[in-house]
Amino acid sequence: MKLLNRTTASTQVKSLYKNLPANIVCFSHLRWDFVFQRPQHLLTRFAQSFRIFFIEEPIFDASEQDYYSYLNRDGNIQILVPHLVPGGSPLGVTARLKSLFDYFIENKDLADYAFWYYTPMALEFTRKHLPELVIYDCMDELSAFKFAPEELKTLEKELLKRADIVFTGGQSLYEAKKNQHANMYAFPSSIDKAHFEKARQLRKATAGSINNRQPKLGFYGVIDERFDIELIRSIAGSRPDWQIILIGPVVKIDHATLPKNANIKYLGSKTYQELPALIADWDIALIPFLLNESTRFISPTKTPEYLAAGLPVVSTPIKDVVNPYGKNKLVSIGESAADFIEAAEHILAGKGRDKWLNKVDAFLAQNSWDKTCSNMLRQINETIENRSLTSIAQ
Fold this sequence. Notes:
The protein is of the alpha/beta class and 394 residues long. Helix content is 40%, strand content 17%. Helix 6 links the parallel strand 7 (165-168) and strand 8 (184-186).
């Protein structure tokens, strides 16, 4: 389904779903301009039909008084960043965030609005407000991440009680939480297929040069505590004639611990728009995640993105990669460096690639962020209608 222009999309959504709020106020632990992932994919599409206010976590850089900065994105999306004066107790910081948000709500002509939570921590400064709808898009098990606040689990329990509808970012996360809410739906990582298919077109245009150089294996994404540093170090050391390209910011881990092999290149952060060109000359894409609490329920968005780019993938046995991608033989699964090397060498031998790519395209044909958004809207509208019917019956 192609994205419609904003006026057409908004008209169609309103004609289908007459009870939806006009505004979405989103609370996120991720910054809009950090890495383009699930929140950005969803909200840029919802912005065709709603006004979006995306509220980030605070930055402690104000000199005299706390304030919000406002940044416009995509016309119908406004990013709000709380800038706080450094210092103060955690309770004091919460009170100041509450004051800023209360002022925003009281002075913004929002008419009707929904709250869309990515972080339960935002409950600390929003719980007094009564939106038309409360949506919790639980994209990860945040409590398992490094430096997660101790109170996050308690706040998530409260949010699950308040939420009208809950989405999860993967099937395994849904299975773990489905008994905690009666109106929960799994919406795993999806794909902007046309965007990543640009890499296939670029690869065809440069096929001769790609076939006459050393193999390139690559990864893009956040390089953090989930990233298997030793796996990459071992692959690079065992195959010095292979290039390993790593794209993305390094966070929450010491840069000094990263492998420094001559055949590893760190390209740093790149924009979403740059990715197809950057990965077009890769031979293989990697998902080198550790198996730990922080990766137990993840559903990497990069899996279908790599496949849409026409790249064979080798991944550690992340549950939501094994099923469905490994199970359907779309992705190779390995645990050790030896496993990764064996899988990569088989891929580089080039046997059965056309047949594999046909299977990939058939699988991805059922998968798109547009379809995900459409299905989410349908579930949201049904939630509102069911609530109205329950209210009438009472």
